[in-house]
Amino acid sequence: MSTEKRIVLSSDHAAIELRQAVAEHAKSLGWEVEDIGPTSPESTHYPKHGEAAAR
User: Fold this and answer.
1) Can you give the residue ranges of every domain in the chain?
2) Of 11, 27, 33, 38, which is the most exposed, with the fewest CB atoms less than 10 Å away?
3) Which stretches of sequence are listed as region Disordered (predicted)?
4) Integer distance in angstroms from the first to the last C-alpha of the chain?
5) Long-range contact list for 21-30, CB < 8 A, 24+ apart?
């Protein structure tokens, strides 16, 4: 079993700033963070990003 701390983060357009804050906090705790977006405030459908994070 791996002891590596890794997390994948995603959100919809409304939570970009919150997701980025969570990513920075996780990094400060030693987690490897993969932030898969979105990166623009344009309206987006969150299930699309949730599915990508689950993969």
Assistant:
1) 6-54
2) 27
3) 34-55
4) 19
5) 29/5, 30/5
